[in-house]
Amino acid sequence: MRVTETGSFSWPVRVYYEDTDSGGVVYYANYLKFLERARTEWLRHLGFDQARLASERGLLFAVREVHLDLRRPARLDDRLQVTVDVAERRGASLLFDQAVTREGDADLLCHGRVRVACLAADGFRPRPLPDDLLAEIAR
Asked: How many CA atoms lie within 13 A of 121 on its CB side?
């Protein structure tokens, strides 16, 4: 984990055999997993654990919308960096800008925009983002 010079949160990912198709290229749906892992680690970096948010505050996050732009293939054994930037904050949702690059290479492999909704765990209804989370995001 690192925070880049532009302030983006970055999480390293290694491409394993299980991530690839028969040609040794990352299967497109696995980019969603890479983005999810990076957002989870970003949240943890801010001091918030999703299991505790659910059990102690009755709060969940659910992906509401995803847009992927797959530009170049990642391959078996590649070391990737997945970045997380908050593009927009609304009352009960966050829009993330995320990118996947090969470590040491500036070429963009995948760009994702992911909207995540904040929900009450006991009914899956929209719930305002917690003030303490908003304060950490603003830092």
From this structure: 11
Domain containing 50: what range? 2-138
* CATH number reported for the structural domain that contains residue 51 in this entry: 3.10.129.10
For the stretch 23-56, pLDDT in tens is 999 999 999 999 999 999 999 999 999 999 999 9
Count of structural domains within the chain:
1
Residues recognised as catalytic: 21
Torsion from C-alpha of 31, 33, 34, 37, nearest 10 degrees: 160
Tell me how long the chain is. Answer: 139
At 80-103, the pLDDT tens digits run: 999 999 999 999 999 999 999 999
Is residue 132 classed as helix, strand or coil in its secondary structure?
Answer: helix
